[in-house]
Design goal:
This protein is an all-beta fold. It has no helices and 11 strands. It is globular, with a radius of gyration of 13 Å.
């Protein structure tokens, strides 16, 4: 069992930056691939970025490529999403998720994840 708690969301002006954190409970954090997704009310949850268990390979949605970076600190059971040059269309609730079985491009699919955080709101104003 893994519990995920996101933090770092808030209100920011367009062009600004935020760093989201996701703290995981348990001692097996390094055995999970981690992902970030975002969702607007009434919409599907969309893939943002993901990273393999050991770090290294990352996957990023085209809509945020070059602006968002995912990273992880296995020693501190935390995954991060650095968001730069934010746009109004980045406004959403952001969720982190953990996958015990999958890696690679399959991490773009919400169905590949076992555990989800409660989400953190990111609002970008013009």
């Amino acid at each position: 069992q893994v519990q995920l708690v996101e933090s770092g969301g808030g209100l920011v002006q367009a062009g600004g930056s935020l760093r989201l954190s996701c703290a995981a409970s348990g001692r097996t954090f390094s055995s999970y691939a981690m992902g970030w997704f975002r969702q607007l009310p009434g919409k599907e949850r969309d893939f943002v970025a993901a990273m393999r268990r050991s770090g290294g390979s990352t996957y990023v949605a085209d809509s945020v490529k070059g602006r968002f970076t995912i990273s992880r600190d296995n020693a501190n059971n935390t995954v991060y999403l650095q968001m730069n040059t934010l746009k109004r269309e980045d406004t959403a609730v952001y969720y982190c998720a953990a996958s015990s079985l999958y890696s690679g491009p399959l991490l773009r699919d919400t169905r590949r994840y076992d555990y989800w955080g409660q989400g953190t709101q990111v609002t970008v104003s013009s």
